[in-house]
């Protein structure tokens, strides 16, 4: 009795929302700043999924001026939204970073009045 034996491969879970999936068939360079003039600090393969912190308007790439800040890294890592399909709502960085800073300051000085 011949039968094929298949190894169970665990499905890779998507990052927490919001996240993006690289749509470019050749992959995508990750930049230090939201510009192609900026240094390449990484690379994401086609269909790679990455957590997104927030977005900014910066250099226009084929009619798209949105760039995403990658989540969960110790250094800033930016990717062009032109080559990323996002899942979930990505807020603008001025809103996200201001809220995070306010929360951090409040936790450090809980009795301070603003």
Description:
With about 110 residues, the chain is α+β, with helices and mostly antiparallel strands. It is about 15% helix and about 35% strand. It has one helix spanning about 95-110, and strands spanning about 20, 30, 40-45, 50-60, 65-70, 80, 85. The chain has a 5-stranded antiparallel β-sheet with strand order 6-5-4-1-7. The protein has a two-stranded antiparallel ribbon with strand order 2-3. The termini are far apart.
Model regions low in confidence, pLDDT < 50 over at least 5 residues: 4-9
Output the structural class: alpha+beta
Number of strands: 7
Strand line-up in the sheet with most strands: 6-5-4-1-7
CA radius of gyration is: 19 Å
- Which bin fits the share of residues in helices? 10-25%
The first-to-last residue Cα distance is 76 Å
What's the order of the H and E elements? EEEEEEEH
Overall pLDDT: 85
Number of helices: 1
Q: Strand portion, in percent?
A: 35-45%
How would the global form be characterised? globular
**Biggest pleated sheet:** 5 strands, antiparallel
Supply database-style keywords.
114 residues, alpha+beta
Entry summary:
The protein is an alpha+beta fold. The chain contains 1 helix and 7 strands. The strands form 2 sheets. A 5-stranded antiparallel sheet has the order 6-5-4-1-7. A two-stranded antiparallel sheet has the order 2-3.
Give the SSE map.
Layout: E1 19-22, E2 28-31, E3 40-44, E4 49-61, E5 64-70, E6 78-80, E7 84-87, H1 93-108
Antiparallel strand pairs: 1-4, 1-7, 2-3, 4-5, 5-6
């Amino acid at each position: 009795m011949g039968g094929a034996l298949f190894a169970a491969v665990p499905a890779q879970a998507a990052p927490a929302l919001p996240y993006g999936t690289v749509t470019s068939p050749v992959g995508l360079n990750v930049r230090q700043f939201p510009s192609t003039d900026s240094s390449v600090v990484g690379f994401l393969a086609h269909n790679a999924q990455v957590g997104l912190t927030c977005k900014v308007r910066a250099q226009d790439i084929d009619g798209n001026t949105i760039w995403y800040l990658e989540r969960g890294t110790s250094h800033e890592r930016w990717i062009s939204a032109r080559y990323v399909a996002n899942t979930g709502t990505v807020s603008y960085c001025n809103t996200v970073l201001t809220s995070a800073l306010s929360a951090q300051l409040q936790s450090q000085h809980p009795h301070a009045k603003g």
